[in-house]
Amino acid sequence: MTVPQGPVAVLVGPPGAGKSTIGALLAERLGTGYRDTDADIERTAGKPIPEIFIDEGEPHFRALERQAVRTAVAEHSGVLALGGGAIMDPDTRALLKGLPVVFLDVELADAVRRVGLDKPRPLLAVNPRQRWRELMEARRPLYHEVARAVVATGDRTPVQVAEAVLEALGLPRTTGTIAVPDTPDTTQ
Ligand SMILES: Nc1ncnc2c1ncn2[C@@H]1O[C@H](COP(=O)(O)OP(=O)(O)O)[C@@H](O)[C@H]1O
Ligand SMILES: O=C(O)C1=C[C@@H](OP(=O)(O)O)[C@@H](O)[C@H](O)C1
Ligand SMILES: [Mg+2]
User: Fold this and answer.
1) Which tens digit of pLDDT belongs to each residue from 141-151?
2) Binding site, residues?
3) Which residues is 79 bridged to in the sheet?
4) Is residue 164 part of a domain?
5) What mean pLDDT comes out for the span 30-35?
6) Residues 38-96 pLDDT 10s
């Protein structure tokens, strides 16, 4: 009988925490697959997230997200990054219980600077600082509720964050890459 093992790491946190960036890096480090539920939703809907919000509204997006998380948790054994609002759904929070979930924490100033440079996020399209603060106030307890570990990202590079996540989850910090010896082999 095959026992489903679930993802090796699940990243949660607000927009700009670095879930997608660190998720891909982590997967590379672990030599495993990477999956992002936002990408899954866009593939299912056949359009980018901002268009889903405009055409069908946020409740429809949340329904797609809920299903995307469920499917990814069932199918994927590598690193999984969720969208920032996925943990608002109570069923999703229940599903995450017992999984190796890491809350990537970030302060307002860093998050707003980061998302300002990146793809559009419909929830932050207008008055992003205030919106982000409100989102985080409502969600912070929920990130803590689902997380096995919390990793601060503010003063760390993506590589440093990825290493902190590996350490927090007790995962190996090296890949299967063949180690390069410190000294050249001079025996020949
Ligand atoms: N630790 C970090 N330091 C600096 N920039 C970062 C860091 N983590 C992510 N970024 C940058 O922030 C932006 C948002 O990252 P992203 O991974 O999309 O966040 P999330 O998926 O949590 O919303 C990207 O441009 C990314 O390169
Ligand atoms: O916080 C949110 O509600 C959202 C975060 C986004 O993902 P990131 O957290 O990866 O930016 C994306 O799922 C959507 O725009 C809604
Ligand atoms: Mg993301």
Assistant:
1) 999 999 999 99
2) 16-21, 38, 62, 84, 121, 139, 156
3) 9, 34
4) yes
5) 97
6) 999 999 999 999 999 999 999 999 999 999 999 999 999 999 999 999 999 999 999 99
Domain count, the chain: 1
Question: Is 182 contained in some domain?
Answer: no
- Specify the residue with its C-alpha closest to ligand 1, atom 19: 18
CATH number at residue 116: 3.40.50.300
Q: Is 46 helix (H, G, I), strand (E, B) or coil?
A: coil
ipTM of the complex: 0.99
| Cα–ligand 2 centroid distance for 32 (angstroms) | 24
* Cα separation, 121 vs 111, whole angstroms: 12
SS3 53: helix
In this predicted structure, the answer to whether residue 165 has a pLDDT above a threshold of 90 is yes
Quick check: pTM over 0.95? no
Ligand 1 within 6 A of CB of 21: yes
The predicted pLDDT at position 119 comes to 75
> How far is 117 from 79, CA to CA, in rounded Å?
24
Token pair listed for 37: 């539920």
Structural domain including 75 reads 9-169
Mark 142-156 as b/e (b = at least 16 C-beta within 10 Å): bbeebbbbebebeeb
